Every structure is written in C-alpha cells, then in structure tokens.
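Long-time lurker. I teach an intro course on protein structure, and each term I like to show students one example going from raw sequence to a predicted 3D structure in token notation. This year I'd like something fresh instead of my usual example. Would anyone be willing to generate the tokens for the chain below so I can use it in lecture? Attribution to the forum is fine with me.
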Amino acid sequence: MRPLHIYSVVPRLPKNLEPLWDLANNLWFAWNDDIVDLFTRIDPKLWRQSNSNPVAFINRLPQETLRAFSTDELFLERLSEVAENLKQYVDNKISSIEFPGRSGTQPVIAYFSAEFGIAPCLPIYSGGLGVLAGDHLKSASDLNLPLVGMGLCYQQGYFRQYLTPDAWQQESYPVYDFEHLPLSLVKDEKGRPVLVTLDLQGQTLTARIRKAAVGRVELFLLDANVPENPPHFRQITSKLYGGGIEMRLWQEILLGIGGVKALEALGLEPKVIHMNEGHSAFAGLERIRVFMAEHGLSFDAAMELVASSSVFTTHTPVPAGNDRFPPQMMQSCFEKYAKDMGLAFKVFLAFGREDPHDDAEHFCMTVLALRLSRFANGVSKLHGRVSRNMWKKVWPSYPAEDVPIGAVTNGVHSPTWVAGDMARLYDRFLGSNWREDPDCGRVWENTETIPDAELWRTRERLRERLVGYVRYRLRKQFARKGAGRSEIEAAEEVLDPQALTIGFARRFAVYKRANLLLQDRKRLMKLVNDPERPVQFVFAGKAHPQDNDGKKIIQELVQLCRSAEGRNKLVFLEDYDMEVAFYLLQGCDVWLNTPRRPLEACGTSGMKALANGVLNVSTLDGWWDEAYRPDNSLGWAVGRGEEYEDHEYQDFVESQTLYTVLENHVIPDFYDRGHGSLPRTWIRKMKNALHQLGPIFNAHRMIEEYTDTAYLPAYKIFNALPENDFAPARDLAAWRMDLMTKWDKIEIMRVHDHGPGNVFVGEPVAVEAEVNLNGVRPEDVQVEIYSGSLDNDGDFAQRLTAAMEPGGKNERGVYVFKGQVEPGEPGRFGFTVRVLPRHPLLLDPHCLGLIRWAEEK
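-- Reply from a regular --
Happy to contribute to a lecture. Here you go:
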C-alpha cells in the first residue's frame, strides 16, 4: 500500500529561532566554526549523532529544547550575530576577479564534477577528486567568482566501509534521506519540480534538480530517482561509481548532457564550462548540439565555439582511471545523437579515440574532453609532464613537451582544513588575512612571529585530540562488532598522547603503497616499541570494491595492527571519510605519503596537513615534487625522484630509504628537546613550511591561476565568436577547414644558418627558412626555430622556440622566414624549424594538432 499524498514534516521553530534554518541550509557552515559552535551549544551529543548535519540536527530537536532556547537571551544574541554574518557574506558582491563586460547575476563558469566533497554530511564524494571539487567551490565563493557547480545527487553515495573478523573489507550502502540534508528541490513558479529529460537508448530519462548553497556559490545536483523513470534508470543516481560499465556510461550521459540541459532549464547561461575529470566530457557534445540547433551553426563552427570556451582538468595518470567504453555500447546510446548532429557514427567515435583510424579502439572520455577543450591541464607540474606523455598519441606529430596540456597545481581551502586551535593562533599572529588572502606571501611571513612555545603547545593539543578521537572511534568499531567489555575498554589504552604520531590515510590503491612500511617488519617493530623514542602510526582508507589487491593490503595492515607487537602502537580506523580526515590531518605530527612515482597526480592531503603545521614525509611525486627542498628544511623526501621498471626492487629500495629517513632524521628531530622541552629544529621546519609553502598550496591561488590562464581567456574568446550572428565562429571554422586541406602540402624547402661550425655561448646564429605555403597566407602560420642542447643520442634534451619573421618571397616565389637563436650554455647544440597554425582567436597553436617539421634533404 502506497500513500496517496506525501508531506515533509519539519519541526515548528519559534519565530526568533527561524534563522537556524538559514544557517543549516547554506554549506558555509562547513568552513565557519561560529555556526558549528552555535549548533553544538544547543546539544553537543545530538550534534555528533547527527553527523554534524544541521538539517538533521534541527529535525531531531525536541520541541521542549526549542522552546527553552527561544527564551535564552545569550543564545538569541549569538544567533542573531551569526545569522547576520552569513547574510553579509552572501550579500557581499565585491570581487578581486573581474570579467569585462559581464552584467547581472548570470554565472560565467559552470564547473562539472561527478563528485563534490564539501562537508561530511553531504556524502556525494569518494575521495580526493571530490574534496578538491568541494574546495574549488568554497574558494570560488570566498573570491566571489561567478561560478555554478553541476553534479549528481546520489541517494546512497559512496560505500561505507567495515571489516570482517579476518580484516577483509566489506561495503554497505546506507540510503540517505534528502529531506534531512542541506539540499532543496528546485521548483518552477507554480511550485512544480523543474525536470530535465533526455533520450537514452530510445527511452526517456528524467531527472529533477536539487540545489545546495555553498556560501555564495550554487551547486545543482541531478536526481534520477523519480517516479517517471523505469527502475533501471532510477538507479543511475543511486551509488557513486556503483554498478557496471553501462551504468557508468549512463551516469556520465546524465552528468554531461543532462547537466547542460539543467542549466538551460534553470535559465543559466554560463559562457565557460570546466570539466573536472573526463566524467563530464559529454557536456561539450551537448553544447555543440545546442549551438547547432539554436543558431544554425555547422558542427565545425559550433565545435570551435565550444572548445574555445571549455576547460578540462585531468586528474589521474593511471590508465584504469580514465573511463573507456566499447564501440557497441556507445552505438546503442549515441548513434541517433550523432546523426542528429550530422556526423557519421565512425566520425563521432573518432573524437574519443587516441587513434581516430582504429575501429577497435574503445571510446575514451579523457580523449573526448581533450579534443573538445582548448584549455587542458594536469594538477601538478609533474602530473602535467606525465599527462603530456600519456596523451601524446592524440597529437602524434608533436614532441611530448608541446602537447597542449599544461599544469595548475591543486590547492586546498585553508579555512575548511585548519583546526580551530590553529586557526585562533593564526588569527592572533597572522591576522584574518590568512583566511581571506591565503595566497599572499606577506601574510605567511608572520609565521615567524608565533612564539615557539605557543605553536608547539597547540600542536600537542591537536595530537591529544586525535588520540581521544581514535579511542572514541575504536570503541564504536568494537561495540558495533559485538566485542566484549574488556576489548572495548582496551581501546582507552591505544596510542600515547606524547609520542611521535605518523598518519597515513588515502585510497588503498596498490600504487599508493600503504604496505611499504611492512617490507621490513622487524625494523618497524623496533621503531614503535622503542621505550625512549616511541613512534606510533594511524592508518585509514578504503579500497575500491572491485580492487581485491587493495583489500589484501588493508587486511595485511590490520592484522599487524591487531598483533601483540603492534597493538596500541599501530591503529587502523575503519570507514575513512572527511570527518576522520579532519582529525588525522590536524592531529598527526607527520603525514606519510608513499606513492610509486609518477602515479600520484597531486596528493592534496599533504597540503591540508601542511596548513596545520604537520610535516610531510613523501616520495617525490605530485605536489611534493615541486614543494620539497633538498636541505630538508620543509620536510623530508623518500628517494630522489627515481623511476624504476622493476617495482618489486623499487619497493625494497624505497622502504629501506623510508626507514633511514625516519631513524636518522624524523625521530631525532622530534625528540631533540631543548629549553622548555621544545623541539626547536622541528618547530623551525614547521615555520619554514608554513612561511614558504602556505601561500602557494591553497585553493585561492589555484582559482586565481585558473582564472588568469583559462577562465578569462575562454570568456573573452566566447564573447568574440558569436558577434555578428556568429560570423567569427563560422570564419574560424572555415579557416580551420581550409588550413587542414592545404596543410599537408606545406613544405619547408631549405633551412640554412650563417654561423660558423663552432659558436660561443650567447653568440646569435642567424637562421633562414624557405617555406612553400601552398596558398596559405603568411599571417596564418607561425614559423619557429626549435633549438636546444642535445643528449647523447642526438635528441633534444631541452628546447627553446624563437619566432621567425616573414621576409617576403625570393626569386623562386617561395616565402623566406628569418630569425636567430642564441646557445645558452656550452655543449652540443642543435636546431630545426617548424610551422604551426596561427589565428587571432587561437590562443594555443598546438591545439589543432597541425605541424610541419623541416626534413633532412
């Protein structure tokens, strides 16, 4: 029997307590301690039981409690103050980032992501990708960036982890009630839910839209669990990364195509889209289809418009992390879609293939995103280099260093991740600017003014808080498993609040090597059982449900934690999530990271630890490759950035190196206590790291870098291309097609220089090149000298490019280009010449994949 009518029953708040709803329904509480303190003051125990979710918390408050606080003058005064702070924050439209010509409240950027980690109570994230997306929205809000988020609303979210008695990971999927989350259903002016529909395999897929307020930024989430859908479609937004490959494809169709449709249904017209990982790449296709249908553009003209205003961030250097779908599956979903766009299906598939001519190759979402965006980046400098090598087949004529994938190193939203105690210390000595302007170097210079004793006592309090939290979590774990009283009480003996505490928490993928410490158990046990200088480890993390190798690592690690020699010194916390992360990242002394280089794209957890004065010990991968200093003044490295073909040998070597670093550097520095029992060397490293790295590895710097290098250029080009009934877009498409038909006939006929056999450092070498342009105008090409030092094989070890200027035609009617190059250092040196396309609306000449190289005659 089903109900005839359904209502949402909410508590009746006294009128003077109604501002509590405003505070509860804006995720600003995720980085505003004053709001959390206000709710905690009402009922600390219920707040924790509500998973720090203010909506669920209010819904569970007894009416008697509400009546009591409605007459509490001190509480009401504080409520009024905090509610006014939220209002002022949301209403403040001042921004340091300006988009010329922008008017009204329309967003400029739409940020697409399959997951968002904003607060523990909104479980639509799995790990680093989602938390990065959440930090992106938060910093966009703080900076008043005109951005809107687009994602999916998963009713079961990512799995919750629990372990069997033999320490094997199992997964559970609780069902979340959206009525008890900080979400609202988007409705039209008649009070009806706004719906989005799209065709999927000949059936209609319907989704409603839910909204989350993230400070000043709105996040819209598509929910397919609606009565209009058949049961199999209702499952699309059931689990994050759940189901098989077909379900993954359906999810990405809803996110990309449905996301663009949702923006239209909401009346939003962003000029730029940012695809956070390849999951949302279909958004580019849908934008092309819309421009074709609504403005009569050809596919090529629409693609130029869309690609020129699209930003794509790739996050994983691991092949398995880039979604690929078989051609037959793509055909069942996209054959009609391609036909409607005037594309042969084989041509459609080519957009998602590294080799467009390989009919057997699967369709790759990363390749599609790369082809449909003119701004692509990795998430650290090293990852940018790795990505250029990984995807160089998409641009087969280019050397890897010229593949158009740049790098914007990730950052973290400091106000979210810095512990309250540390935040109050920063407020006193750095001023409030560390929250508002965290990428300002002058702010972090003031770290030097913090008294050593105060900084260290704060760190000690955070370690003590972590130990208390670990004991609390273990008691819950044991009680849930039906453990006896003695075992539950034994949890109170776990860890030493005074001992050096090392944290390791992340996804348990094999390449992250959580078991590197286990390579030499005897050496590990000697460390943790040293009575004079004890070391303790806290581990947490999940393996993907299908990753049995990752589950085996967890099992091996947990069994060691439970052993007689490891008990109380080694702890594994089940069900790693944002809440566990807060305590670990804030309370450890050392953050350990041991990925196999170069498979860690960035690793933002180390940045969050850094912001709390925690020192890093890591292999030189991801962000640490650019943050580390060889003098160990900011933290420590495991190895020197070597890359091995023999992984077993690599694990052995680097495990021994890790133990050496711990034994000879980390442990002595921590326990070397001077006057006042202060570890002066350790404190100096903490201050150095905060001073030098704090201004760099934060999300404000990241957002501003995206704005300067991608958002603003994309916005300007988008505004230029639709002018005069999209004439520039049509012209750009026609120019591109004309260039492609003539490109193969362009020939660099002769290259010669006017230098002697040997030249001095800094001595210019004049170069001339005769180029047959095959009817292409000189202003449509960019002729360059490509030069640099050579390695032992005669290949370029580094490169420098210099533009050549056209000097008119010679007597044979061939264009002559002239330039010069200067060797910068002694040694073997060489140069060649190349031709690239050039157009005023083409910001990167490499993105078209067109290039001609001089050949030996």
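Some talking points for your students: The first helix runs from residue 19 to 24. Residues 744-853 form a domain with the Immunoglobulin-like fold (CATH 2.60.40.10).
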